[in-house]
Design goal:
Shape of chain B: globular
Radius of gyration of chain A: 25 Å
Number of helices of chain B: 8
Structural class of chain A: mainly alpha
Helix content of chain B: 40-55%
Helix content of chain A: over 70%
CATH topology of chain B: Spore Coat Polysaccharide Biosynthesis Protein SpsA, Chain A
CATH class of chain B: Alpha Beta
Order of helices and strands of chain A: HHHHH
Distance between the termini of chain A: 61 Å
Number of strands of chain B: 7
Protein name (chain A): DUF2304 domain-containing protein
Organism (chain A): Spirosoma fluviale
Keywords (chain A): Membrane, Transmembrane, Transmembrane helix
Protein name (chain B): Glycosyltransferase 2-like domain-containing protein
Radius of gyration of chain B: 17 Å
Strand content of chain A: under 5%
Order of helices and strands of chain B: EHEHEHEHEHEHHEH
Oligomer: heterodimer
Structural class of chain B: alpha/beta
Strand order of the largest sheet of chain B: 3-2-1-4-6-5-7
Shape of chain A: elongated
Number of domains of chain B: 1
Number of domains of chain A: 2
InterPro entries (chain B): Glyco_trans_2-like, Glycosyltransferase_2, Nucleotide-diphossugar_trans
Chain lengths: 135, 243
């Protein structure tokens, strides 16, 4: 295989750095939690390494006995994506459980408060989910 | 356990504005007739119709879930309430009027007599009253077979939501109760926890109002979800038991 052209090397390096910057901004703004950002930072670092170390992919592929280097990229990427999706499903399941417990706890507390005549429950609870979001 | 035990009837309610008041009034009539120490708890699962204001006007307690949890989560909050407030017996009864309150003594009988920890009202023992559609019965037949296979117990009407639990069972369902479509799953749970399950024949009515939470398009998903739930419940509890 011919060596990677210099233009594509610069483009991939720049886009990797831009992506890293984007991740940092998300963390700073509080839109991405640090524990979920680790994976993305690691991915970007790998991208940067391979954009600088031009022969790296070919060398690793040959060492592993893979004769078409791009297929190694696909293999690695699909594997990583699958693992991450499973991880996200686990996170969603955990959150669903937490929401269930919280909902039940809120209902039980509301009932207790009502019995103590502390609150008169507002009528909003019967409203649509969209109204609940704005509360 | 005697008829003087403290009983909590939990009525899950999702959009049952047409039926819920009747269900509660029938229950109160049965309470007065039989002299039960019975409280009624309606669990409003974030209904989008008028159910909540109707429930508020009824002389009973209620839980008002701020987020829709489905029947499993709604019943679980009712069981947690029963546990926290020290009830001896908890009864589940649908809010759509399918379960006649008149049958309550029948369902409670095995609990009073301490013959069972879980008593299930079944419409398929005496084959009287509303029998459900053919495909529905086919599904129930499948769950019967699955239950027999896994816990060696024959439950004819595993989807029945007309049930009574004693204190021992309340303690168990207070800790964990399955989500979404809990009825068939919880039978495997009870079987593996070593609870005594007893089925009693009851008549059921066709629902007075509203539609079933399980329509034809959801039937396949229901079967798959419940089968998975049952199988994984089996593995989870079996592992715990052998540990």
């Amino acid at each position: 295989m011919a060596s990677v052209p210099i233009t594509i090397q610069i483009i991939s390096l720049l886009s990797a750095l831009l992506f890293l910057l984007f991740i940092f901004r998300l963390i700073v703004k509080g839109k991405l939690r640090e524990e979920y950002s680790i994976l993305w930072i690691v991915c970007t670092v790998i991208l940067i390494i391979f954009s600088i170390w031009r022969k790296g992919l070919e060398q690793i592929s040959l060492a592993l006995g893979v004769f078409y280097p791009p297929s190694l990229i696909f293999l690695g990427a699909i594997f990583a994506i699958t693992i991450f999706l499973v991880h996200l499903s686990v996170v969603v399941s955990r959150q669903q459980n937490q929401i269930k417990v919280l909902t039940q706890e809120v209902a039980l507390l509301r009932n207790e408060l009502k019995n103590r005549h502390v609150i008169n429950e507002p009528e909003t609870s019967a409203a649509s989910p969209s109204a609940a979001l704005t509360n | 356990m005697t008829p003087q035990s403290r009983i909590l009837v939990i009525v899950p309610c999702y959009n049952e504005q047409g039926a819920i008041a009747n269900v509660v009034h029938e229950l109160m009539a049965v309470r007065d007739r039989e002299g039960y120490k019975l409280d009624i708890l309606v669990v409003n699962d974030c209904s989008t119709d008028n159910s909540l204001s109707i429930i508020r006007s009824l002389p009973c307690s209620y839980l008002n879930l701020p987020v829709n949890l489905g029947i499993g989560g709604a019943m679980h909050s009712g069981y947690r309430y029963a546990y926290q407030n020290g009830y001896d017996i908890a009864v589940q009864m649908d809010g759509d009027g399918q379960h006649p309150a008149n049958e309550l003594p029948t369902v409670l009988q095995p609990i009073f007599q301490q013959e069972a920890d879980v008593s299930i009202g079944s419409r398929f023992i005496s084959r009287e009253g509303f029998q459900s559609s053919f495909s529905r019965r086919l599904g129930i037949q499948y769950f019967r077979w699955l239950n027999q296979l896994l816990i060696g117990e024959t439950v004819h009407d595993s989807t029945s939501g007309f049930r009574a639990f004693n204190r021992r069972t309340i303690e168990i369902v207070n800790r964990y109760y399955p989500d979404e479509y809990p009825e068939p799953e919880s039978i495997v749970q009870f079987g593996l926890q070593g609870l005594r399950i007893r089925e009693v024949p009851v008549r059921m009515r066709n629902r007075a109002e509203g539609v079933s939470s399980i329509n034809t398009s959801r039937a396949l998903y229901y079967m798959l979800k419940v089968s998975l739930g049952i199988v994984f419940m089996y593995f989870r509890l079996n592992n715990k038991r052998h540990r």
